[in-house]
């Protein structure tokens, strides 16, 4: 097994010597299943370089965990997690998402610029949150793996209004868009199935593909998304099982695909007999105009979600797919959870009718915060560059030099969490990029950019790993 690369949150926020804090972070990562029994950890030198700390600190942490019986080291084989006691369990493919996605929140006071959701008290309108009628759900019995009929009908009507005629039988409700993607990649990626993605792409999709054992082919993008010529050549040369794209508000670049490009891609996929997935999770956040689904034939699949508009805790997403495919996806869904929460689905059904109003409000918030973030970065970090996104919650920033992953580790020490560009790339490209979200309140964005400025000054001067102190966000 190859060594896994730990994520940015390994150094705990507790007090004490740095090597003990690193040991605590590694211990927690094993308990959470990020490193299974037998997993090989990075070498002391590689981990020190990745985290921007001294090799002596890593040596001390590894030694402490060996004394506890959690790790074992053997010359020529590296350092591995011991398969004993409560640590028993197979290794799981390492997630590329920041560890905060697994632990809940960043360390106290750290500003998270890796998130994608605007949060606030207005997230769920009060009428929708009214519990009236919820007791009726308990009158039924059994499971509805495909989802509540009322919600499926409203999702179908939404797609039809957007220009993609859909019936309720073509809708499967999932626990967020992430489960929808995982179901698709499990179905099409098993036994080394080839999945084509954009490069860069959504980190959660990359994780799902790795977990499914799929073979990923990452194709280059431009200002309109995935390029046509490389896609045409790939479809001609490889037995592609699935094409996964984000045509509107691509993650992480924020690009929107032109109508002509959408049509070309749909035709290529149809001629090759390859199902194409259009992930529209961020599509409601396009800044100008109204988004439209990818023009598809019978092989077209759409992924959607309400989390980006309303509340990340509302784990309701969906798949729109042909009926024949829906049967197989439903079988996988039953194995996973028997069906999504009825309460959450009823809340989603109430929210769908006001989704366009909420989208308008979110676009206004994000546009204002994008303008502020851009102004702050131009003032504090004038050597950083980016193209203004057409929608979504992210800036895709290019550093003038250096490595984004190393800088991200350093920035964490200054109290700000960012996503390194390499985490968004199946081939670990875009090492000189960062994905920065601008979903936070204006005051928090000002603090975050000030901290990024401090971290970048330290990075350019080669001053270690930062203060690693406690932070307060006022």
SSE topology sketch:
Layout lengths: L17 H14 L8 E2 L2 H8 L3 H13 L3 E4 L3 E4 L18 H4 L7 E2 L13 H4 L19 H13 L9 E4 L1 H14 L4 E6 L3 H10 L2 E8 L2 E2 L1 H10 L2 E6 L13 H14 L3 E4 L20 E6 L11 E4 L2 H15 L4 H10 L3 H26 L13 E5 L5 H10 L2 E2 L1 E2 L12 E5 L4 H20 L13
Would you kindly provide a written description of the structure presented here, covering whatever features stand out?
Residues 1-8, 84-88, 97-104 and 465-474 have low confidence and may be disordered. The chain has helices spanning 18-31, 44-51, 55-67, 100-103, 126-129, 149-161, 176-189, 203-212, 228-237, 259-272, 323-337, 342-351, 355-380, 404-413, 442-461, and strands at residues 40-41, 71-74, 78-81, 111-112, 171-174, 194-199, 215-222, 225-226, 240-245, 276-279, 300-305, 317-320, 394-398, 416-417, 419-420, 433-437. α7 (176-189) runs parallel beside α8, α9 packs parallel to α10 and α14 (404-413) crosses α15 (442-461). The radius of gyration is 23 Å and the shape is globular. The protein has 15 helices and 16 strands. With 474 residues, the protein is an alpha/beta fold. The strands form four sheets. An eight-stranded mixed beta sheet has the order 5-12-11-10-9-6-7-8, with helices on both faces. Strands 1-3-2 form a three-stranded antiparallel beta sheet. A three-stranded antiparallel beta sheet has the order 13-16-15, covered by helices on one side.
Q: Helicity, in percent?
A: 25-40%
Q: Number of DSSP strands?
A: 16
| Tally of individual helices | 15
Largest sheet: 8 strands, mixed
Sheet/helix structural class: alpha/beta
Which whole number gives the mean pLDDT? 84
Query: What form results from the Cα inertia axes?
Result: globular
Oligomeric form of this entry? single chain
* Strand order in the sheet with the most strands: 5-12-11-10-9-6-7-8
């Amino acid at each position: 097994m190859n060594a896994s690369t730990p994520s940015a949150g390994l150094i705990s926020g507790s007090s004490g010597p740095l090597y003990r804090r690193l040991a605590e972070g590694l211990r927690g990562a094993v308990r959470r299943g990020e490193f299974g029994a037998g997993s090989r950890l990075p070498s002391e030198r590689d981990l020190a370089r990745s985290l921007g700390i001294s090799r002596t600190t890593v040596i001390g942490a590894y030694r402490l965990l060996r004394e506890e019986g959690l790790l074992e080291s053997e010359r020529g084989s590296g350092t591995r997690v011991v398969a004993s006691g409560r640590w028993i369990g197979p290794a799981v493919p390492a997630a590329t998402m920041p560890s905060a996605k697994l632990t809940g929140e960043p360390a106290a006071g750290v500003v998270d610029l890796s998130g994608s959701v605007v949060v606030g008290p207005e997230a769920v309108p009060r009428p929708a949150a009214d519990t009236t009628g919820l007791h009726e759900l308990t009158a039924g019995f059994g499971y509805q793996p495909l989802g509540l009929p009322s919600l499926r009908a409203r999702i179908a009507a939404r797609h039809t209004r957007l220009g993609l005629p859909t019936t309720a039988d073509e809708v499967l409700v999932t626990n967020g868009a992430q489960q929808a993607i995982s179901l698709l990649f499990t179905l099409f990626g098993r036994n080394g199935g080839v999945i084509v993605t954009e490069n860069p792409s959504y980190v959660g999709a990359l994780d799902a593909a790795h977990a499914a054992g799929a073979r990923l082919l990452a194709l280059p993008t431009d200002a309109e998304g995935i390029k046509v010529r490389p896609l045409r050549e790939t479809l001609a040369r490889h037995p592609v099982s699935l094409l996964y794209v984000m045509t509107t508000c691509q993650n992480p670049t924020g690009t929107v695909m032109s109508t002509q490009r959408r049509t070309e891609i749909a035709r290529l996929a149809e001629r090759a007999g390859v199902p194409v997935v259009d992930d529209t999770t961020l599509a409601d956040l396009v800044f100008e105009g109204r988004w439209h689904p990818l023009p598809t034939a019978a092989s077209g699949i759409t992924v959607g979600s309400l989390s980006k508009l309303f509340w990340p805790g509302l784990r309701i997403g969906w798949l729109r797919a042909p009926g024949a495919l829906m049967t197989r996806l439903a079988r996988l869904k039953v194995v996973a959870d028997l069906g999504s929460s009825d309460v959450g689905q009823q809340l989603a059904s109430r929210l769908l009718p006001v989704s366009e109003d909420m989208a308008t409000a979110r676009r206004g918030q994000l546009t204002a915060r994008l303008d502020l973030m851009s102004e702050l970065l131009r003032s504090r970090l004038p050597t950083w560059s980016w193209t203004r996104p057409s929608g979504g919650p992210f800036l895709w920033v290019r550093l003038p030099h250096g490595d984004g992953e190393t800088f991200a580790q350093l920035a964490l020490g200054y109290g700000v969490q960012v996503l390194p560009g390499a985490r968004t790339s199946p081939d670990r490209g875009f090492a000189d990029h960062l994905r920065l979200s601008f979903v936070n309140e204006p005051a928090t964005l000002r603090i975050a950019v000030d901290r990024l400025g401090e971290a970048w000054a330290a990075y350019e001067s080669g001053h270690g790993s930062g203060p690693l102190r406690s932070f307060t966000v006022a």
